[in-house]
Design brief:
Length: 974
C-alpha cells in the first residue's frame, strides 16, 4: 500500500502511523453506514483522496494516524451536514457490533464503574497519542481528564470521545450518560476535562438466589422423600426464580417510585420558580404594554402631525402648480398678443416701415421670444420638480440630429469668427425624448458660443459599451474652480457680481442636468479659467424603459427635427446687427378694412380676452364671416343657434371653459360634427391629449403665428369639404343601388302597359270596335299604371328624409329594403325574416332605409357560397327595438373589427367602395338616438345589431343629414 504523508509540526506522519486504533473509527463508519447507507459511504471514499481503504479501516488490529482520523472526521461531518454527527456516532461505541462478545459479558456480570475503569486502563492499547486519567469516581458520577501529546486541530475528536463515554449506560438499557466539558485542550487548556452523570442499573440477583434456594430445597425434599427428585427440584427451582424475579421487580418499582418522587419534587420546585418568573414576566409585560401604549400614542400623534404636514405640503404643491398654470396663462396671453402683433407687422412689405422702425420691431420680436423661452424653461423646471414630466422615448441617430441642430448656429459662429465643428463617428441610436434632448444641446451649444469670443466650439461624439458620449468643448472664458460645484444648481450664476458681462436666469444648466438624469444619463464639466470649458454628456445605450403612458416608438430612427420659434438660435444668442430672416415665406396679409364675402365660411371665435379677440378678428375677418363670444357658455349657445362651419376657442375662460363647451358640443346631435380648434397657453402633452380625446379637431398653443392659425383653419375646412363630398358620393351610390332596383321592378308593368296599347288601338280603330277587348285592355293599362305609381311612391319615401320623427314600421321598412335589393339576390341565396317586434320606432324612414340597404348590401356581398343565408330579425329588449342582420358569409378579420366604422376604411378591393357606408350608418343611428354594433367570426359569418328607441315622441326634431345642401362632417367614434 502506498502511504501518503501529512505534515504536522516538524515531522511527517504516514496515514497508517500507529497512533489511534481503527476501533475508534469503527463507530464513525458504522453510524454513517446505518444513517446514510453503505453505497453512499463507498461513494464518499471514492470521491475523496483517502490513502487507506474501507477494508483497512474495518480490520480491528490496524492503526491510523491522528491527522488521518481528523481528516476522516472532517469529511464525514461535511458529507452528513449534521453538526452533531461525531457525538451521535460515539453513542454507537457500546454496542454488540463494536464490542462483540464482551458486550454480553459486561451486561451480565459488569457494572458502569468497572467499564469506566477498564476503559481508562486499556486506553493506551488503542490510543497512543493521549492518556486518560480518572480524577473522581463516585456513585453515578465521574470526572475524567484527557491529555494528548499532540494538539488536535478541532473539536470533532472531543465530541467523539464524549459520545463514546456517554454510551456505556446503554448496555443495560439506560439512557446515555450526561457529559459536560469544563475545559478543552483544543481551546488552549492543558487537558480536556469531562464530567459524567448517569443512573446505575439495579442488581438483578434475586432470580439467581431464588433459583439456588429452589434447587437446594428440591434436593432436600427429594432426600426426605417428599417427592420425586426431578419434579421436586424443577418445581421448587421455578418457584424460587419466580419469587426472586418478583422481588427484583418490586425493588425496581420502588426505586422508580423514588426517582419519580424526586422528579416530582424537582418539577414542583421548577413550577414554583416558573410561577415566580411568570409573575415577574407578567409585571414586566404590563409595564411594557403601558410603555408600548404610550409609545403608540406618541407615534399616532407624530403620524397625525406628519400626515397633516404632508397634506399641507401636497396642498402647497397643488397651489404652486395652479399658480404656475395661472401665471403661464396670464403671461402667455399678453405675450401672444405682442408676438401676434409683431408677426403681423413684420409680414408687411419693406415699403410699409422705414428700416429703423423695422429693426426696432425685430428687436422687440426677439426680446418677446426670449421672454417666452424663459417662461417655458421655468415651467419645465417646475414640472421636473413635481415629477409630472413623462418622457416620450424614440430612437435617435445622434450624429444626424446634432448636424441638423448646428445649422442655425453656424451663421452666428461665422459672424463672431468662431469655428463650430462636429467630430466623431456615428454612434448607436439611443432611446430618448427628442424634444427634451433638443433643448439640452440647444442650451449647451448656445452657452458655448455665448462665452467664446475667439477660437472654436467643438461637439465631439464617441461611445463605449454602456454610454454614448457627447462633449461640447469651447475655448472661451472658462469657469472659476469655486463655481464648478454650483453651476448646475437652480438660479446659480458662474459670475454673480454686479459687473457680469453675460446675462441669464440660472435655469438653463439646472434644466439640462435634471433632463439628463430623467433619461438615466448624466453631465460633467471640467474647465480652466481663461482657457475654456468641456461639458461631457452621457446617454445610456439600450432599450427605453417600458411605461404604460409612453407611446410605441416609431420603427425608423428619427434623423432630424425641424427647428421652430423656440429653437431659433438668433433669439437664444440675441446678436445685434443684421436681423435674421425666417425661411418661411410670408403669406399675403389683406388690409384690415377688407371683409369676407357672403359665401365665405362662418367661424365662431370664443375668447375671453378682448385684446386677443380683437386682434384675431382683424386677422380672420378678411377670409371668414365671424361670430364672437366672450366665454364658453355664450359660445355654446351661439354654436347651437347659428351652426357655424368652424369654432376657434380658448381653453381657460370664465363661466364655462373651452373643454366644458367642447364636451357639451360633442354631446349635442346638432353640433357633434362641428370642427373645433382649441387655443391655450398650456403646452403640456397631457393638456393636448385631454383636448384631442374629448373631440377637438386641432390644438394650437399660445403664442402662435397668424399664418399658422389661418393654415390650420383652412386645413380643417378642407377636410370637412372632403368628407362632405365623400358622404354625398356614398349617398348617391346608395340611391343608384335603389334606382337600379326600381328600374328592374318597373320593367315588368311597363312592358305589360306597352303590350296592351296595341290591342286597344286595333280594337278602337277597326270597322267593328270590340268594346270588351278595349275595356279589358284599359283595365290592364290601369293596373300596370297603379303598379308603377306604387313603385315610384315607394322610391320617394325610401330616399326622402325629414327633420321630424314619425312612426316607422320596422317590418315594412325592412321588407321594402329587401324588395329593393331583390334584383341583386342570386337564386341560391335564402333570405329569412323573423319579425318579433310589432311596435313602431320614431325615426326618419328615409334615413333608416338607407341604413338597411347598406347593411343588407354588405351581407349579400359577404355571402358568396352555395347555401348562403341572410337572416333579418327584429325583437324588443326593454325600451329598445333590436334589428339583427345575420349572414353566414366570409366574416371580418379580428384586426379589422375595431376599424369598420372608421371613415374611408373598407375591406373590399380598390374601386369597389368609398369606405363610408358603415360610418354613415353609424352616424344615422346615433343621430336617431340608437346604437349599432358588429359581431363577427372570420370565416363563419357576421351579425350586425341596431338598437333604436321605442319611446313615442312625434314632436322630436331630428338633426338633418343635409345642411345647406351638404352632409355635415362627423367626428366618428365607435
Amino acid at each position: 500500500m502506498n502511504e501518503s504523508e501529512v505534515v504536522r509540526g516538524d515531522r511527517a506522519h504516514p496515514d497508517n502511523a500507529p497512533e489511534v486504533s481503527v476501533r475508534t473509527t469503527s463507530t464513525l463508519l458504522l453510524y454513517f453506514e446505518r444513517r446514510y447507507g453503505a453505497a453512499r459511504l463507498a461513494d464518499v471514499f471514492r470521491r475523496h483522496p483517502f490513502s487507506l481503504s474501507l477494508d483497512y479501516l474495518r480490520t480491528a488490529t490496524n492503526f491510523i494516524s491522528l491527522p488521518f482520523l481528523e481528516k476522516l472526521a472532517d469529511v464525514l461531518v461535511a458529507e452528513s451536514g449534521d453538526a452533531q454527527f461525531m457525538r451521535k456516532a460515539g453513542l454507537f461505541m457500546a454496542g454488540p457490533e463494536t464490542l462483540g462478545f464482551a458486550y454480553y459479558m459486561v451486561r451480565a456480570f459488569g457494572s458502569l464503574e468497572i467499564c469506566f475503569r477498564k476503559t481508562v486502563e486499556l486506553s493506551s492499547s488503542f490510543n497512543r497519542v493521549g492518556q486518560f486519567e480518572i480524577e473522581e469516581l463516585a456513585r453515578e458520577r465521574l470526572v475524567l481528564s484527557y491529555r494528548s501529546s499532540t494538539r488536535e486541530r478541532h473539536r470533532h475528536i472531543c465530541e467523539l470521545r464524549m459520545g463514546q463515554f456517554a454510551s456505556f449506560p446503554t448496555i443495560w438499557g439506560l439512557p446515555p450518560a450526561e457529559v459536560t466539558e469544563s475545559q478543552c485542550h483544543v481551546l488552549g487548556a492543558d487537558a480536556c476535562r469531562y464530567h459524567l452523570r448517569w443512573t446505575d442499573p439495579l442488581p438483578m440477583w434475586g432470580r439467581y438466589i431464588g433459583l439456588l434456594l429452589g434447587s437446594v430445597s428440591g434436593v432436600g425434599a427429594s432426600i426426605l422423600g417428599l417427592g420425586h427428585p426431578a419434579f421436586s427440584v424443577t418445581a421448587l427451582s421455578l418457584a424460587g426464580v419466580s419469587l426472586g424475579s418478583w422481588l427484583d421487580l418490586r425493588r425496581e418499582m420502588r426505586r422508580k417510585d423514588e426517582a419519580l418522587n424526586e422528579q416530582t419534587h424537582g418539577m414542583m420546585g421548577s413550577l414554583e420558580e416558573l410561577q415566580q418568573r411568570y409573575d415577574e414576566m407578567f409585571r414586566i409585560n404590563v409595564a411594557l404594554e403601558d410603555r408600548v401604549a404610550a409609545r403608540t400614542r406618541e407615534l399616532t400623534e407624530s403620524n397625525a402631525r406628519l400626515e397633516a404636514a404632508l397634506a399641507k405640503q401636497k396642498e402647497l404643491d397643488r397651489l404652486k402648480s395652479e399658480f404656475f398654470d395661472n401665471v403661464s396663462h396670464e403671461l402667455r396671453t399678453p405675450l401672444t398678443l405682442i408676438l401676434l402683433t409683431l408677426d403681423s407687422l413684420l409680414q408687411r412689405g419693406p415699403e410699409v416701415f422705414a428700416p429703423p422702425v423695422r429693426q426696432h420691431l425685430e428687436t422687440m420680436n426677439r426680446s418677446a421670444s426670449r421672454l417666452l423661452r424663459l417662461i417655458n424653461n421655468l415651467l419645465d423646471l417646475t414640472k421636473l420638480e413635481a415629477g409630472k414630466t413623462k418622457l416620450r422615448h424614440e430612437p435617435l441617430e445622434i450624429e444626424n440630429f446634432l448636424s441638423s441642430l448646428l445649422v442655425p448656429f453656424e451663421v452666428l459662429a461665422d459672424k463672431k469668427g468662431v469655428a463650430l465643428e462636429l467630430e466623431g463617428h456615428a454612434p448607436t441610436p439611443v432611446q430618448v425624448d427628442v424634444a427634451r434632448l433638443e433643448s439640452v444641446f440647444q442650451n449647451l451649444i448656445s452657452n458655448a458660443l455665448k462665452f467664446t469670443l475667439q477660437g472654436r466650439v467643438t461637439v465631439r461624439l464617441h461611445e463605449d459599451d454602456t454610454w454614448v458620449h457627447v462633449e461640447v468643448i469651447d475655448t472661451g472664458v472658462g469657469i472659476a474652480a469655486q463655481d464648478l460645484a454650483v453651476i448646475f444648481d437652480r438660479f446659480a450664476q458662474a459670475d454673480s457680481s454686479g459687473t457680469r458681462r453675460f446675462g441669464g436666469t440660472g435655469i438653463g444648466l439646472a434644466l439640462v442636468k435634471e433632463t439628463l438624469e430623467l433619461h438615466k444619463g448624466g453631465i460633467d464639466v471640467s474647465s480652466e479659467l481663461g482657457k475654456g470649458s468641456n461639458f461631457h454628456v452621457r446617454l445610456r445605450k439600450g432599450p427605453a424603459p417600458v411605461r404604460e403612458t409612453e407611446p410605441e416608438p416609431p420603427i425608423e430612427p428619427v434623423l432630424l427635427r425641424p427647428l421652430g420659434r423656440s429653437l431659433d438660435a438668433a433669439s437664444l444668442l440675441e446678436p445685434e446687427g443684421t436681423p435674421v430672416v425666417t425661411a418661411v415665406e410670408a403669406l399675403p396679409v389683406l388690409p384690415p378694412e377688407v371683409e369676407a364675402g357672403p359665401d365665405a365660411p362662418r367661424v365662431l371665435l370664443v375668447e375671453d380676452e378682448p385684446e386677443i379677440r380683437a386682434f384675431l378678428r382683424q386677422v380672420l375677418k378678411p377670409y371668414y364671416r365671424l361670430l364672437e363670444a366672450s366665454n364658453g357658455e355664450e359660445g355654446l349657445s351661439l354654436a347651437q343657434k347659428e351652426r357655424p362651419d368652424l369654432i376657434v376657442s380658448d381653453v381657460m375662460m370664465p363661466v364655462m371653459s373651452g373643454l366644458q363647451m367642447l364636451a357639451a358640443l360633442r354631446a349635442s346631435p346638432e353640433t357633434v360634427d362641428t370642427p373645433l380648434i382649441l387655443l391655450t397657453a398650456r403646452q403640456e402633452v397631457e393638456a393636448k391629449v385631454e383636448g384631442l380625446t374629448m373631440g377637438a379637431n386641432d390644438y394650437l398653443a399660445k403664442p402662435f403665428s397668424p399664418r399658422e392659425m389661418l393654415a390650420r383653419i383652412e386645413a380643417q375646412l378642407r377636410l370637412r369639404d372632403a368628407a362632405v363630398r365623400a358622404a354625398e358620393n356614398e349617398r348617391l351610390a346608395a340611391t343608384g343601388l335603389l334606382t337600379s332596383g326600381f328600374a328592374h321592378e318597373v320593367r315588368n308593368p311597363l312592358n305589360g302597359l306597352m303590350n296592351a296599347l296595341l290591342p286597344l288601338r286595333e280594337s278602337l280603330t277597326s270597322g267593328t270596335p270590340d268594346i270588351g277587348m278595349a275595356v279589358a285592355m284599359l283595365e290592364l293599362i290601369e293596373e300596370c299604371g297603379q303598379r308603377i305609381r306604387h313603385l315610384a311612391e315607394g322610391l320617394l319615401s325610401f330616399v326622402r328624409t325629414g327633420t321630424k320623427a314619425m312612426a316607422v314600421d320596422l317590418g315594412a321598412s325592412l321588407d321594402a329594403s329587401v324588395q329593393a335589393l331583390s334584383w341583386r339576390l342570386s337564386p341560391d341565396l335564402k333570405v329569412e325574416r323573423d319579425y318579433q317586434c310589432a311596435e313602431p320606432v320614431w325615426s326618419d324612414p328615409g334615413s333608416l332605409n338607407q341604413v338597411w340597404v347598406n347593411l343588407l348590401d354588405n351581407a349579400v356581398r359577404a355571402v358568396a357560397k352555395e347555401g348562403g343565408c341572410v337572416r333579418v330579425a327584429t325583437s324588443r329588449e326593454g325600451s329598445d327595438a333590436v334589428v339583427s342582420i345575420i349572414d353566414n358569409g366570409v366574416g371580418i378579420k379580428p384586426e379589422n373589427l375595431d376599424r369598420v366604422f372608421q371613415p374611408f376604411f373598407s375591406t373590399r378591393d380598390a374601386g369597389e367602395g368609398t369606405g363610408l357606408g358603415l360610418a354613415l350608418c353609424q352616424r344615422i343611428v346615433l343621430q336617431q338616438g340608437g346604437r349599432i354594433r358588429i359581431f363577427s367570426e372570420y370565416g363563419k359569418g357576421t351579425r350586425v345589431e341596431v338598437r333604436l328607441p321605442l319611446e313615442a315622441d312625434p314632436d322630436r326634431l331630428l338633426p338633418p343629414l343635409l345642411s345647406d345642401g351638404r352632409v355635415r362632417q362627423h367626428h366618428w367614434n365607435t
